[in-house]
Amino acid sequence: MDKIIIEGGRPLTGEVRVSGAKNAALPIMAASLLTEGWNTFSNIPDLMDIRTTRKLLQSLGVVIEGTSGTVRLNASEISNIEASYDLVKTMRASILVLGPLVARLGIARVSLPGGCAIGARPVNLHIKALQEMGAEVALTDGYVEARAKRLKGAPIYFDIPTVGGTENIMMAATLADGVTLLKNAAREPEIVNLAEVLNGMGARISGAGTDEIRIEGVERLHSVEAEVIPDRIEAGTYMIAAGITGGDIRVMDCNPIHLCALVEKLRDAGMIVEPVDGGVRAAGNGKIRSVDIKTLPHPGFPTDLQAQMMSMMAVAEGLSVITETVFENRFMHVGELMRMGADIHIQGHSAIVKGVSALKGAPVMATDLRASASLILAALAARGTTELSRVYHLDRGYQDIEKKFSALGAGIRRVSGSS
Ligand code: UD1
């Protein structure tokens, strides 16, 4: 298995381009199941999760041209309605084929998902919503099987604003009979991107980006050409990298409006974050003030940047309280950061981070996608060498991460070998 070796202590400078958003590309690719004819999507990132989605859609009969950049998908003939455990186990977002398949074909069988080990992450809200739309759902042998001759529009209230649930049901509702009203819907920019793509296909969706989304079902959708938005989590990770290394970088092709909560916190921590043509300049001066963080659904502070922010707080002046409210088990990076000299205590859903003057390089292990990124950030700021193993987590969600950091002046390289 590959490892990433990092020599810390170099301030990052220069320009980095953000790739397309993984979390927008995945549902958008799944949306192709709703149409006949060729859909063309640009700015698809080159990532393991995209390759998994490709395999999954191909296993259902979707014809796909291209692997990243501009990708064309044709779901004219769906030959299989089952998403198998082998494909689904590595990526929770596979559940996103459930809604489109039931809506288009009246039946779907999808293995219950795996993905990052950051909590129980059930799909009960997806299932309940489909049932409310008239689907018969059975859970057997680790699979969700849903059937409905034609889904019926319905008012749906999500107990929790679930991103995947909102996307799944929004897609399903596009072909339902009547109006579906999603209340307490998630408001993430990726949901807005998906709604725009669906409307481009002829769907009638309004309110995406607010907590109430209205979908008027139509008889059929047509193919579309659309672009995936930039990855705000990748962009945020590079912005934090500038702060933790005392560097000065331009993060290009990113939309700062998608990152308001982070930008606010980085400024509070003493960083300069300012818009520049086509992106954002993020600069630190080597001194980081501690700030408190509480993760929340969008537009709150994103849980997907919690681990990276914790690395920065590990070398800040003072005490920071980081509270995770979205997932119940998302502090697995804490143990690894402590191996690098961080002073962190977990109390329930909060991590109390007492800044230290410097972290020290150490062998560390990636435990999930965003935790891996936090360890890279810590290593970039640390004295000495860090060896990060299990980097396959990282490859699920960050395109060319070591090349991009290397171009910013980091001492980082990937080596092949056993872990
Ligand atoms: C998506 C993102 C992930 C991000 C998360 C929260 C993708 C591919 N992944 O994941 O990177 O960390 O949003 O911003 O877009 N829940 C239930 N029942 C359900 C569904 C969710 O209890 O049926 C709970 C989850 O366990 C979690 C919370 O709701 O505690 C939010 O999960 P959700 O928004 O659904 O996350 P994902 O869509 O899986």
TrEMBL record:
Domain (Enolpyruvate transferase) ranges: 7-404
Active site annotation, chain numbering: 116 (proton donor)
One example GO MF annotation: UDP-N-acetylglucosamine 1-carboxyvinyltransferase activity
Cell division listed as a keyword: yes
Coiled-coil boundaries: none
Example GO BP: regulation of cell shape
Function: Cell wall formation. Adds enolpyruvyl to UDP-N-acetylglucosamine.
Entry protein name: UDP-N-acetylglucosamine 1-carboxyvinyltransferase
Originating species: Syntrophus gentianae
